Amino acid sequence: MNYEETVTIPNETGLHARPASQVVKTAGAYQSKIRLIKGSQEADAKSLLGVMSLSAGRGDELIIRAEGDDATEAVKALCQLIETQEMK
Amino acid sequence: MPSERYQGISAAPGLAIGRVVWWRKEQPKVEHYNVSDPTSELKKLEDAVQQAKEQIQYLRNTTAERMGDDAAAIFDAHLAFLEDPAYIGEMKQHIQEHHKNASAVCQEITTQMVEMLASLPDEYMQARADDIKDVGNRILLLLAGITPFDPLTLESGSVVVANELTPSDTAQFPPGVAAMVTARGSKTAHAAIMARTLGIPAVLGLGDQLQELSEGDLLIIDGDGGTVEQHPSTQRQTEARSTIKHHQQLRDQALEKASLDATTSDGKRIQVFANIGSPGDADQALANGAEGIGLFRTEFLYLENDHWPTEEEQIKAYSHVLKAFQNKPVIIRTLDIGGDKDLPYANLPKEDNPFLGHRAIRYCLANPAVFKTQLKALLRSSIHGDLWIMLPMVENLSEIQETKSLLDECRRELTQKNIPFAETIKVGIMIEVPAAAIYADVLAKEVDFMSIGTNDLTQYTLAADRGNEQVAHLYDAAHPAVLRLVKKTCEAANQAGIIAGMCGELAGDTMMAEILIGLGLHELSMSAGAIPEMKEQVRQIHSTSAQKRADEALLQGSADAVRQSVNPSF
What we know:
Protein name (chain A): Phosphocarrier protein HPr
Oligomer: heterodimer
InterPro entries (chain A): HPr, HPr-like, HPr-like_sf, PTS_HPr_His_P_site
Domain HPr (chain A): 2-88
CATH class of the largest domain in chain B: Alpha Beta
Structural class of chain A: alpha+beta
Low-confidence stretches of chain A: none
Number of helices of chain A: 3
Number of domains of chain A: 1
CATH architecture of chain A: 2-Layer Sandwich
GO biological process, one term (chain A): phosphoenolpyruvate-dependent sugar phosphotransferase system
Subcellular location (chain A): Cytoplasm
Radius of gyration of chain A: 11 Å
C-alpha cells in the first residue's frame, strides 16, 4: 500500500539534528518504507544523515511517501510531528 | 639526558611534575583491496560497529555522571550515526556489492558523509561533520585493532600532551591528572578555561616543540610562566616537589577556612563569589566557599542546543543554582552572544569586527522575543532564591531603561497568567565597555549593582586582542589605565550607594587583591578553585595600606610596573 502527504515545515529551526532525530525515531516505529522528498532531493526517513542531508528549513515543503502495511499511519504520524511543532 | 626548556602560553596557573602521556588522535592507515569473502568482511564491520557502540555508550554514561546529561548529549548523536542505514547500511551494501575490504569502505562512506554535511548551508549541520568523522575514525581504529586513547586510563600524576584538546576531551580527565600541554590553543581557548576550572596547570601553544616530548618523559610544568621543562635535573625535581608540597599545604590551609568569611585584618568584609558556566558547577563553587554566584554565564544554554532554549529549559538551569545557593545572591548574566560566540541557529551575519559589533545587550534588545523568553525564565526562577539580573556590554542608559520596560512587560504577562515571581529582583550591569566606566556615575543611578568584567574592559581599553600572539603582550588587566576605570566605577557605585564587584579574571588574581580592595571593590568573583586562596589572601590585607598601594598603582607607567609593585619577584 502506498500513501503520501505534503507538509510545510513550521519549525523555527527546520529539521536540525534534534528534530531530525525525532523524525527518525518516529519513522523507525513503522514497518513501511518511508521517503522524505524535498524538491529533487530524497531521503530515507529512518536515516538521521539522510534527513539531515535534506537541510529542510522553515517554510520548505516536504512530501512524505510511505510504502507498506502501515503506510497511512506512518505518514500521518510524521505529518503531525512536523506540523505541530512538537519538535524543539 | 640534558634538560630542555620550552616556552608556551600560560593558560592555567600552578606548578606540576609528572610524566608525559600522549593523547594521540590517531589516523589509522587504510589499505584498499578486494576480498573474495565479503561475509567475513561484513562480520568484521559488524563487530567493530558493535564495539564502537559499547565504547560510546560507556563514554556517554561516564560523561553524564561527571558533567550532566547535556554534556553527554553529543554521544547520543554518535550512537544515532551507528544505527543509521545511510551510513552503516551503506557500508554493508558496498562490501557485498563491490567485495571491498571493510576499512576502505568505512573510510569512503565516512568521507562522503563528512563532505555531505560540510556542504550544507547550515553551520550547525556543518559542525556535525566533525562528529561523523569521529565515529568513522573510531570504527577504523577498531578494524585496525588499535584501541583509541581512553582518558579514563590516565594515571594520577600524568601530564597529558596533545596537539589539541577539546573541552569534551578535558571533560573526560579523571581526577589526578597533573597538567596539560598542547601545541595549539590560547589562554582564552575553552580547553584553557576547563583547565582552570579543574585547577590543573596548563601550558598551551607550544607549537612544533611539542613533538620533542616523548611518552614517559619527566616534565616540570609551570602554568604561571608558561614553561615546560623536560628531563629536569635531580635538584630541579627536588625543588619543584617541595614548592608543589608547599603550595598544597597553603591550599589545604586555605581550603580548611574556605567556608569562613573573608575579612581584611582591619575588619572590612569582602564578599568572594564564584563564576560559573553551567548549573553543574554550583556544587564545586559551594564546596570552595563561594558566598554567592558573581557571574552565571547563560551562553551554555544557547550554545549546547540546536534551538532557542525554551522558558522551561532555562528555568530548570537557573532554579537548580538558585536552590543550591539557598538565599545567597546568584547573579545571572543575560545572553552574551556575538563577538567570538556564534549561534548556528541564530543566523548571525558575519561581521568585520565582531567585538565592536552586534553582540550581547545590543543583540538582545534588537531581538525582543529571544530576550523576553530569557527574562521571563529569570522572573519565574526568582521564587527559588536571591536572583540578581546582570546585563552585559551596557554603554547607554537607554539600554538599561529598555530592558527594564521589557521586564515590566514580562511581569504583566506573568501576572495575567497567575504565574508567581519574586517582588524585588536586583537589576545590574557589567562594566566592560570603557564608556560605561567613564560615565558610571550616570548609569549607577539606574541600577542596583555594577560588576566589572575585566576581560572585555581590558581589551577595549588597551585595544589589544590577547588571542593575537603579536599583541597579546599588550593585554594586561593590571594596566594603570584599566585600574583607573575600576576606580571610577567604584567611586560611582559608592556615591550611588550600590555594590561594585568584579567578575573578570583579574578578580581571581591573588597578587592583585590588595590593589583591587584598595580601589574600593566590595565583591570579587572568580572560578571556584581560586576562592579559598583568595579568601586567605584577603585576610592578610589591611585596607589602609591597600588604599595606598592602589593610589600608587594608578600612577605607575605600565602593567608590569604595577605587578612588580606588589610582587617583587615578577
